[in-house]
Amino acid sequence: MISFTYEFKLKPSNKQIRDIEMYLDICRSVYNWNHGERKDWIRSRKSPIDRCSIEKEYIIPADKPFPNYYIQANNLTQSKKQYSHLKEVHSQVLQSTLKRLDQAWDDFFKVKGKGFPKFKNKNRFRSFVYPQIKSSDLKTTQIRLPKIGWIRIRKSRDYPTGMMPKQLRIVRKVTGYFAQIVFVSQESIPDILPGQISLGLDAGVSSFIATSRGELIKTPKFILKAARKLKSLQRRLKNKIKGSANWLKLQKKIAKLHFKVANRRQDWLYKLAHYICSSTDNIFVEDINFTSWQKGLFGKQIGNSAIGKFINQILPFVCFKRGVYYHQVDKNFTSQECPNCRLATGKKSLSQRLHSCQYCGISLDRDVAAAKIIEQRGRVAVGQPANSKYTCGERGAGVLQLTLFDLVTVQ
Ligand SMILES: [Zn+2]
Fold it and tell me: If you measure from the C-alpha of residue 214 to the centroid of ligand 1, how many angstroms do you get, rounded to a whole number?
């Protein structure tokens, strides 16, 4: 199933702002209380049996199970009888807050590099989620927040056609309140079948993305320039006294620029996805967990969240809209195999830009070589021969818009 998130700025009334803030406060208190309960349980298990620590005033019976999501959700329902303010918030919103806590704990144990969950202060808790919304909750210029009511939005784009709204997240940012709506494709839409022409993509070391056709696509200069400016403003913020008038002013400026950079980047990523889709039937990409990737496991494009968003969200969405087959292949050792003779050529250091095969003697850009391997794996996955007569620019690479893409063809 394909899902996609659209963001709209809200135009709430003063009363609605108070309601949203109240939701955030109550959700935050639920999050923190339940986080504390989990922490206390862990702490009680750590206490040695033969000594009684004075700090450990919580005596939790030995057979009491760990307060997991189901136990905490059940307790929450009970607490509503005692604490009436909990009833002010839509029950699904409170449940999704507990899910979020559960996810944070889960990530800590399962995802490498994730820290222990923290108690949230006002600045760290800025959103809440309605896990289920309906088409009737969306009007042209308004959206309905169950229990809060209709709120006006700035309609910056049309809702996607042929998709259903599923989830709604309300986020407080420095520039105001935003609604992030997740749309999903309806299941009645038939699956897209693989065609003859394939393209492999690899998130590059030196480029944003490399294709199996030999294209290295770089992030355009105007985005890099704006991102650099953003960084320098953020550095300046450190020298200001937190909370002062100048600090606040700069904070606003940063938020505005951030918004602008994000929009431009998103716009470019869409154009890139359409460009890629315009010349192929099938797109194969690496199956990468971008969270651990960004933590430096792979060392490429560290901290560039755009690549994860592109490969996991934007590209599948555009493929879906344009009827292009999209498939993720096994990511292992794509950079250690020769696309020409298929032999294992060994590990490359990050500074090594070329793939030079010691067996067959072929020499080409490392990212392009990896993209070719991805294409071959994709072909095999859909039951086609690894090397097809259609490979390598059989059908031209479309119109090269150099100003837009800063694109280099290396072969
Ligand atoms: Zn070789």
Answer: 17
How many angstroms is it from 343 CA to the middle of ligand 1?
A: 6
pTM above 0.85, yes or no: no
Query: What separation in Å is there between the alpha carbon of 397 and the centre of ligand 1?
Result: 25
What tokens were used for 221? 């200069």
Distance of CA 276 to CAs 98, 178, 273, Å?
Answer: 40, 31, 5
Distance from Cα 293 to the centre of ligand 1, integer Å: 27
Domain boundaries, the chain: 3-185, 198-409
pLDDT of res. 305: 66
Q: Which residue has the tokens 């609605």?
A: 16
CA 340 to ligand 1 centroid distance, Å? 5
CA–centroid distance, residue 334 to ligand 1 (Å)? 13
Between the CA of 355 and the centroid of ligand 1 the distance, in Å, is 9
Quote the strand ranges of 125-175, DSSP E.
127-130, 142-145, 149-154, 163-173
Let me know if 324 is exposed, middle or buried by CB neighbors in 10 A (0-12, 13-18, 19+).
buried
309 in Cβ contact with 301 (< 8 Å): no
**For 37-53, b where at least 16 C-beta lie within 10 A, e where not — what string?**
bbbebeeeeeeeeeeee
Å from CA of 375 to ligand 1 middle: 16
Quote the ligand 1 centre to 350 CA distance (angstroms).
Answer: 20
Q: What parts of the chain have a pLDDT lower than 50?
A: 56-57, 292-303, 390-406, 411
Q: Are 118 and 124 in contact (CB under 8 A)?
A: yes
Instruction: Encode pLDDT of 341-358 as tens digits.
Output: 888 888 877 778 888 888
Question: Own/partner pairs for 72-79, CB < 8 Å, 24+ apart?
Answer: 72/34, 72/37, 72/98, 72/101, 72/102, 73/98, 76/30, 76/34
d(CA 95, CA 26) in angstroms, rounded, equals 12
CA of 345 to the centre of ligand 1 (A): 8
- With CA atoms as reference, report the closest residue to 216 among 16, 51, 357, 397: 397
Helix (H, G, I), strand (E, B) or coil at 211: strand
393 C-alpha to center of ligand 1: Å?
20
**Cα 363 to ligand 1 centre (Å):** 9
Start-to-end CA distance of the chain, whole Å, equals: 36
Among the listed residues 385, 387, 410, the one whose alpha carbon sits nearest the alpha carbon of residue 397: 410
Instruction: Report the pLDDT value the prediction gives residue 346, as an integer from 0 to 100.
Output: 81
Q: Tell how far the Cα of 347 is from the centroid of ligand 1, in angstroms.
A: 14
